[in-house]
Amino acid sequence: MDLDKLPLGKKITYPEKYDPSLLVGISREESRNRSGVTLEPNSFYGLDSWTAYELSWLNLEGVPKNAVLYASYESSSKSFIESKSLKLYLNSLNNKKFNSLGDLLELIKHDLEQCVSSEVEIEIRNTPKDFVKESKSIDLVEINSEEGVEEDVPWVSADEASEEISCSVFRSLCPVTGQPDWATIRVTYSGKLINYQKLFSYLLSFRNFQAFHEECVEKIFSDLKKFCAPNELTVSANFLRRGGIELNPVRSTLEAFNKEVLRETKQ
């Protein structure tokens, strides 16, 4: 897909009527080729989990109803949803009347599944989910951000570890607009102990890297598999919301990875 044709970065007239054609799917195959991610299709698992805090529609009497929408689909889907198109699509529901919450759920599920060519899990709640528990942060690890960590410094030590570590100062850039995207990255693994300085320096190297959220997580996951050879690995990212919508991708070596994606305190 030509990125210049996406609604991102363009002045758009917000829809007044329901319009499922506003949804835009981006090919995962093209995305992985563009970002240089080389993962065998059956070598990992994952999902893309969306939270939309500004879902709004009308009941049959024309009275507005508001809620929080959760939508997720597997990383094996043919396509993933472009974020601004999702916002426009959800806004197109603002003036549409529904007989019941079930009818709204059914419609959104159908439209999103058409977009990504895969099953989509949908949940609508009156309040957001809980916050995720804190993990071991590497934000204060001391490095020279300009020089980084020397290439010959090993990624792992001889010690064994099983831990979850996080970095809340991650930044990448939108591949279309160049605007910054902020996230907390969580790395859960078992295997040889990862060098925190090496990992921190690596994550900071994304600061001017242009890629979609999904591409960033898959590249981090792919690189850590190659550099650290862990026994088990799960990488997740909680990106700060834009326009009331946030995306939290997860990639894992485990088929039974934790699929409940909770909020970071910054979200």
UniProtKB/TrEMBL annotation:
It holds the Pfam family QueF. One of its GO terms (molecular function) is preQ1 synthase activity. GO terms for biological process: tRNA queuosine(34) biosynthetic process. SUPFAM superfamilies: Tetrahydrobiopterin biosynthesis enzymes-like. Residues 14-124 form the NADPH-dependent 7-cyano-7-deazaguanine reductase N-terminal domain. This is NADPH-dependent 7-cyano-7-deazaguanine reductase N-terminal domain-containing protein. It comes from marine metagenome.
